Amino acid sequence: MNGLDQLPVLVTGAAGGIGAAVVARLVAEGARVAALDLEAPDLPGVAYAGAVDVTDEDSVAAAVAASTAALGDLAGVVAVAGIHVTGPTHELSLADFRRTLDVSAVGTFLTLRATLPTLVARGDGRIVTFGSTAAVCAAPGLSAYAAAKGAVLQLTRSVAVEYAGSGVRANCLCPGGTATPLLAAINAERTSRDHFLEAHPIGRYARPDEVAAATAYLLSDDSSYVLGAAFMADGGFSAL
After folding, report:
1. CA-based, 20 to 30 A from 134: which of 27, 69, 205, 229?
2. Out of 36-45, 179-188, 209-218, which region has the weakest mean confidence (pLDDT)?
């Protein structure tokens, strides 16, 4: 895709199924990638691998500084880091609800806050955050996750409008079910696993590399007129 070769990009949540696929695709496109997770991920081809706790502002600031030292001024940010808690709302603990919001929503905010000055200074910054179909489609047992991903979506839209005049493009990628170990663990607890699969008109879950391809598109020059979007990569889930 156009504009990705040698592009310095920071990716959080890089050790997970989707995050690792995003890193692999960006490396294949020639991007220079800083891959971050709770523990420094061991991924081929990255320019820098480091540890970050996205819920801690000092940790985020240090990770961004280390990534910048390794790559130079960042041009792209992909905020994948997030967790998934399921269960009836009346049974959710406050700790689980807060943790879900902290990792997904607060973590995305801290990542963007730490990187926006550089993206603005470049005049062509690119941001991809990770929402979900849960950000726009209600489902039982997902209140904490939906609240967190809805917050990510609205944060991204606000950033897109706020910084469009500075040349920064921000979009929220919203995958449907994606075939990762996380989804397998969630499905093991679902009573409606078959219904969830059937809710995807395409008849299957996404492969991580398909979500990574959408991420690469949103970072590339090919999406130069796309900003503030809830970019659905969900096999038709949200169209029903």
Report:
1. 27
2. 179-188
pTM over 0.85: yes
How many whole angstroms separate alpha carbon 175 and alpha carbon 152? Answer: 13
Token pair 């929402």 in the structure block, residue: 131
**C-alpha atoms less than 13 angstroms from C-alpha of 27 in its C-beta half-sphere:** 19
Whether the per-residue pLDDT at 201 is higher than 90: the answer is no
Of the listed 48, 145, 163, 205, which one is catalytic? 145
Known active-site residue 163: no
In a domain, 2, yes or no: no
Residue 205: CATH number of its domain: 3.40.50.720
The percentage of residues in the chain with a pLDDT greater than 70, rounded to a whole number, is: 90
Mode of pairing for the β-strands spanning 8-12 and 126-130: unpaired
**3 within some domain:** no
Q: Mean pLDDT over all residues of the chain?
A: 92
Number of domains in the chain: 1
Q: What is the DSSP letter of 141?
A: T
Residue 1 lies in a domain: no
Between 234 and 145, name the one with better pLDDT.
145
Q: Which domain holds residue 206?
A: 8-239
What integer pLDDT is reported at residue 182 of this predicted model?
A: 64
Average pLDDT over every residue of 43-47: 98
Residue 196 belongs to some domain of the structure = yes
Alpha carbon distance 79, 14 (integer Å): 9
